[in-house]
Amino acid sequence: MQIQVVKSKIHRVKVTGADLNYIGSITIDVALMEASNIFEGEKVSIVNINNGERLETYAIPGPRNSGEITLNGPAARKVHKGDIIIIISYGIIDMEKAKDFKPSIIFPNENDNTLT
């Protein structure tokens, strides 16, 4: 049997922008993507701490060390600049392997989204 587990998590980052006129996705500083093991085009869940909204989209890389976290397209309606969000991706794994699996979880500085 296989189960779905947390693969990657960026815990508490500040939204730096919301672009309704973009075609979709979330732009994430590539340094944060690499540190959390999130891949370009990967499906991610977004949890907004400020308003409780939850949504799914896909990740695209933003400029390295920019701290950029921008919700694009329809997702831009679910956040405001300055909101704190959690970004989560999941993977499917065999139950036995899941017992030893460790997700990539990072805790950036939520004031400027830098890795500390």
Automatic annotation (TrEMBL):
Binding site for substrate: T57, G73, P74, A75
This enzyme's EC code(s): 4.1.1.11
Binding partners and assembly: Heterooctamer of four alpha and four beta subunits.
Annotated localization: Cytoplasm
Gene Ontology CC entries for this record: cytosol
HAMAP family: PanD
Primary location class: cytoplasm
Top-level taxon of origin: Bacteria
Keywords: Autocatalytic cleavage, Cytoplasm, Decarboxylase, Lyase, Pantothenate biosynthesis, Pyruvate, Schiff base, Zymogen
Family annotation (InterPro entries): Asp_de-COase-like_dom_sf, Asp_decarbox
NCBIfam families: panD (TIGR00223)
Pathway as given in its UniProt record: Cofactor biosynthesis; (R)-pantothenate biosynthesis; beta-alanine from L-aspartate: step 1/1
Any one Pfam family match given in the protein's UniProt record, by short name: Asp_decarbox
Chain's role: Catalyzes the pyruvoyl-dependent decarboxylation of aspartate to produce beta-alanine.
Positions annotated as active site in the UniProt record: S25 (schiff-base intermediate with substrate), Y58 (proton donor)
Cofactor stoichiometry and binding remark: Binds 1 pyruvoyl group covalently per subunit.
Sites bearing Pyruvic acid (Ser), chain numbering: S25
Reactions catalysed, as given in the entry: L-aspartate + H(+) = beta-alanine + CO2
Gene of this entry: panD
Listed cofactors: pyruvate
Protein name listed in UniProt: Aspartate 1-decarboxylase
Gene Ontology biological process terms, A to Z: alanine biosynthetic process; pantothenate biosynthetic process
Organism: Flavobacterium supellecticarium
A GO term, aspect molecular function: aspartate 1-decarboxylase activity
UniProt similarity note: Belongs to the PanD family.
PTM annotation, UniProt: Is synthesized initially as an inactive proenzyme, which is activated by self-cleavage at a specific serine bond to produce a beta-subunit with a hydroxyl group at its C-terminus and an alpha-subunit with a pyruvoyl group at its N-terminus.
